[in-house]
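ESCALATION

Customer reports they have been waiting on this structure for their group meeting. Please prioritize. Original submission:
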Amino acid sequence: MDYTININDFHGPMDLLLHLVKSSKMDIYEINTSVIIEEYLNYIKKMQNLNIDIASEFLVMAATLVHLKSKMLIGIKEENEKEEELEYDINTEEDLKNRIIEYEKYKNMSEIFKELEDKRSDFYTKSPENLSEYKNDAITKDGNVTLKDLVDAFLAYQERINMQKPLQTKITHKEISVEERINNIKEILKIHSRINFTELFTTLKKDFIVATFLAILQMAKNQEIKLSQESNFKNIVLESR
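Update from on-call: job pushed to the front of the queue and completed.
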């Protein structure tokens, strides 16, 4: 077999063994261990003849395979005496096959992770940072009502209506959209130039309350209304602009 690959092209002896198996077009589960051992040792010998530096781990594997080959030649399956422990615990052909199969699984998994890492590098994320300096709770520049004031008023109103609910109710209602509620509020402000925030919640239905609140927020954002409050905890008043 003509080897043209440098020993440094492999990540370790198991990588070289797997390469030899694939180069020989063997089934990974039907490895001819005798052939693979012989090819590995020939490969190492050729690298040494070319004066190529070989990492110690490749030589340790070579020693392990020589030991295994000698056992195979004389037909020894089990050692009666306790052997000196080597770095690679390969004492039988089955051990060698299992190590190569196991390595292939880890290598395939590593390649999948590498592909995922490469795909992830196409995305860029921004580290979290404090945005409080950019925060602006004011709904309008010329008003004195903040978003927190509006939410507090809404929560207070909800608490009041929950206490006023009857013990038993039968609800039949038609869903209302935020746009529809915006149009309703515009019609109300055409008649009344000023109206209290809570007076807009004329129905105790959940979807009506939510739609009304969102409509007020949207109108304030679009500067279609002005919100004002004389002091903390006082009623919030809506005015048409």
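Sent to customer with the following note: The first strand starts at residue 194 and ends at 196.
Escalation resolved.
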